[in-house]
Every structure is written in C-alpha cells, then in structure tokens.
Amino acid sequence: MNLQKNGIYRSMNTTAWKITLLLCWILSVRGLLSYPEYRNRFLHPGREDAAVLAFSALVCLGQYALCRTLTVRTILTVPVLAASSWQDLKWREIPDLCHVLIIFLNLRSVRAEGIYTALFIYAVLSLFSRKGMMGAGDVKLIAAFSLSAGTRVCTATACAALLVLIAAAIKKDPPERQIPFAPFLTAGFILVLFLEAAG
Predict the structure, then answer these.
(1) Which one, 78, 101, 111, 137, has the greatest CB density within 10 A?
(2) Rounded to two decimals, what is the model's pTM?
C-alpha cells in the first residue's frame, strides 16, 4: 500500500513539475512579448499575442501535415522564436530571455557536437557583430539554437541569409539600413525542426 502511495505521490510530483514548467514557459513567452514595457503591458495582451499563437499553430499544423508527426520541441520552441522575431521587428533587439528559453527548452537535445558548434559559431559570428555586420542578439540566437541543432544550424543560417538577400533586393533598402535578421532565422530554424521531425 505504501509503495502504491509513493508511486502515486511521485506521479503527482511529476505532473505538478510539468505544470509548473508549462506555466513558467507561458509567463516567459508573455514576458518576451511585453518587453521592454513589462509593467504596462504584461497583463494586457495585444495583437502580437494572437499573431504569435496563430503563427505557432500554423507551423505545428504544417509539421504534422508534412511529417505526420508533431514534436514537443516544435510546440515549445516556435512561440519563443516568433516572439523574438516580433521584438526584432519592433525594437531591433532580441531579449536575452529568448536565448535562455531556447537553451532551456532544448536541454535534452544538447550533444557534444552542438556545444562545439555553438562555441565555434559564437566565436566567428562575434567578429561580424563587432564590425556591425550582424546584431549581437542574432549571434546569441544562432549559438543558442546550435546547441541542440548542431551543424544543421549552418543550413538554417544559410537559408536565412538567402531570404535576407531576396528581401533586400525586393525592398531596395539603402545599404546602411539594417534588416531585422531574427524573422529570417526563425524561418531557417523551423526548416531544421521539420527536417528533424521527418528524419
């Protein structure tokens, strides 16, 4: 009887822990969307919240339709990426909370290859960041995602760079005006999530 109670108790603890993590994730994504006006906007969701939810739902439906599977990693990571894209578009800044969340949500997928890749990418791209060719937030975003994606992050970054070139050619922006990179990185990262689900 005691063993059964202990088993139930452990199950309740596990469920409670999952619920706690889920609540922390929801509050963190909400915090990302209310940055930098936490006090004024945290309790007042706006259009960006609906847009992030709708975008995340479409990505999840797309992964299930194309890959016949839906990974927990996609469900949790895509809203964070979408929120970071929103912040980059609006404020030209990616909060550090985004990088921390991406690392935390993908801890189970981190391998030695990912650690080496992240260190190498961070070291190389930091040189571009110092010369003003790339934002520091973009560098940290790529490094954070590469911890779990490994060398596949190179594919995501290459796709993002290609999309930026196409967007710049279409918009014909002056060279001195920076284009937010996070939305294009999000597209590349989603491609990697789809490839992992399919493979």
Answers:
(1) 101
(2) 0.83
